[in-house]
Amino acid sequence: MSILSTALERVKPSPTIAISTKAAELKAAGRDVIALAAGEPDFDTPDHIKAAAVKAIAEGKTKYTAPDGMPELKQAICAKFLRENSLTYSPAQVTVGNGGKQTLYNAFIATLNAGDEVVIPAPYWVSYPDMVLLAGGTPVIAPTSQETNYKLTPAQLEAALTPKTKWFIFNSPSNPTGAGYSWDELKALTDVLLRHPHVWVMTDDMYEHLAYDDFKFCTPAEVEPALYPRTLTCNGVSKAYAMTGWRIGYAAGPEPLIAAMRKIQSQSTSNPCTISQWAAVEALNGPQEFLTENNASFSRRRDLVVKILNETKGITCPTPEGAFYVYPSIAALIGKQTASGTVITDDETFATELLEQTGVAVVFGAAFGLSPNFRVSYATSDAELLEACTRIKEFCENLI
Length: 400
Known about the structure:
By secondary structure, the protein is α/β, with parallel strands linked by helices.
């Protein structure tokens, strides 16, 4: 008899973590590796946020808090939602988790029964389907295409919904494509959802502040207030505030749902790190000017990467509206082979050969549910991006 549960058979390890680990191992072995796989800003956490954490330690604010977040942080989150998204929530409608991933997972565990479906547009963040499967639900993948810049159309959403659909999960700007939905594009989707009152909406707004050019972020309950009673609006401090390791995510929604998620967390991890919570209070309430400065760097890096990749034989790369990813297509390279004779049969082979031959680590598109593509994270220095993209270009142009 195996010690492992059958639930574990439904999920697989995170491909992005696996590729980042492989790149780190090669680098430790002396290889010249440029890792473009991790979704993590290279900027340091701003000083005023770090100072708030140090102050909390000095003042002895190191004890347990309420299982899903202390009152001061919940108040800061309510203020953020009102200030930035025109959404009114009370602290009882807010939950704080150990990163955004736990918040999403708590919601699935608290709501999904066998046979319940969750509609997930593809390409998707790698963890969505596996979290649904682990919670006992059924992922329903709704593929998009490069023709729509990897955005789901109303017709595609309508076709994916069934009487068994419990959740529609929505991510904008997107990981892995960086695609952001305009107000009108999102309103077209919320109009569909209004016709299906049994479907709940889970938003992943983690990249809200990473928006470029004229793109204006919006979130479903803001665009369509009638969806407010059945929307869980999720966010966190990891990406925009360069606080990935601090592990603070949060969500707001109807009180009965939040209470159920709180129950799950009270019997699993309990409260997020107290010091991190105080840092998050400062992140949300404190100076925000650095966001503009960081975005200028990200926008410049995006343009650099998109330009070089679009100049590369066999690659087409849309310009994303936000986040810090691009999702180029390699459809024209499938069937070609390397000088050593390896045939590029799919995007996983492409990514493997790219890493082995050039030392550039990217994530293959199949991990995100849509091929043949790969994801580049441009959350690293201009110099590294220039070198990495040059290597990618040379690799592609040497295929025969």
